[in-house]
Amino acid sequence: SQTIHQWPATLVQPVGSPLSLECTVEGTSNPNLYWYRQAAGRGLQLLFYSVGIGQISSEVPQNLSASRPQDRQFILSSKKLLLSDSGFYLCAWIRQTVSSGANVLTFGAGSRLTVL
Amino acid sequence: KQEVTQIPAALSVPEGENLVLNCSFTDSAIYNLQWFRQDPGKGLTSLLLIQSSQREQTSGRLNASLDKSSGRSTLYIAASQPGDSATYLCAVNSGYALNFGKGTSLLVTP
Hints:
The complex is a heterodimer. By secondary structure, chain A is mainly β. In chain A, 0% of the residues lie in helices and 56% in strands.
């Protein structure tokens, strides 16, 4: 069965410190991978998506970056955190097929980041 | 750019009531639409997925409908229970990723 893991679950970091959130998927190959952010009072915002190793598309210009060093690993990073980076970060995956109509997007449990 | 709107933003109902959550989207060229549930501080759980060729999907007390031409979907919850209290999110797949509404926060009181 397919599972998705995110860590850490919670993180408190000072402004200007680096960030690394990790996401891995098991039980599937060549998934599409996504990083979303959910800030207080706002909807889910797509940050990055990846259709393959080393392939990253950015939706929102900011001080965050993403990498996909392995097929089932997706990492969200920052060199220097800002207060506005606080939020709930969610990793998700979807199976790649020619017809995507029947594919369900599956989320990890999320990582709550507080920048002080 | 696909815009997804959910109405109402919040809803409080007594236990046992039937209720309808609404979702609208601006671009009818979609692959599918998903309804999710999110409990406080948790990730999202997929409830129902409706493909663009389908009109509705049912799972237990939940029924989701899709009218692609008018850009609307509804989530119907029958005989609501306190355990249904959560935020319900609608998401539209128009290509590489899903666009989400801001959700409807539902409270079912005993």
